[in-house]
Amino acid sequence: MTAGAEGAGRDPGLQPERTRLAWRRTTLSAAVATVLALKAALHGGPSAASVLAGAVCCALWLAFLGIAHSRVRALTTTPRPPTLAPRQATAAVLCAGALAVCAVVLVLQ
Amino acid sequence: MSDFVRNIRLWFAPERVREEGGTPDYRFSLANERTFLAWLRTALALIGGGFAVDQFLPDLRWAWRVGLALALLAAGVLCSLRAVNHWVRCERAMRRGEDLPASRFPVLLSLVVAVVAVAMVVVVLVGWEG
Lengths: 109, 130
Fold this sequence. Notes:
Chain A has helices spanning 3-7, 15-42, 48-77, 86-107.
């Protein structure tokens, strides 16, 4: 997985690896929030609105996973990884924000 | 305020960040990215906390439960927006060779979390009595 980085001499500070793991941790945090959202959606007799909100949460997690995966690929295949694109950062933040909107819908159910 | 609007434009336009100054050492950019991700995790944890308050404190009165959950969710949204804004500001400061921006947000967030925590303690104690 790190063949590209090794080919150009490993960064002694392991910066790309640490950044890759940070993306993984963040994806895991998003997964925990999504699981809590699903629990809230299915709790006490699911209604149409709560099932929809739960499905949107799953889709948001998949979107976040996609962003993280493309970034991880960029980090592991290039020896000098390019800077994170603001578009990716904004997309990741919008996933978190939309998750919070779904949470509001579920809490007010 | 106009500075904030300009930052928002930068969120969506990677090429405009690259226009300014020189490219910093990629390790600095990666460190900035990890800081951004740490703040994003904090935001996700706050959102998860909002769900948890709603789910795991069912004995609370509705208004308190929903109020606390909404406060945590709002803090999560604020935290994630601030994460991307601070990341853009740091990235631009590094490209221009300026000092990194100072921020009062960590203090603000810790005060909010402390107030919510104290409110939780009070509410749980009072809620169990009543």
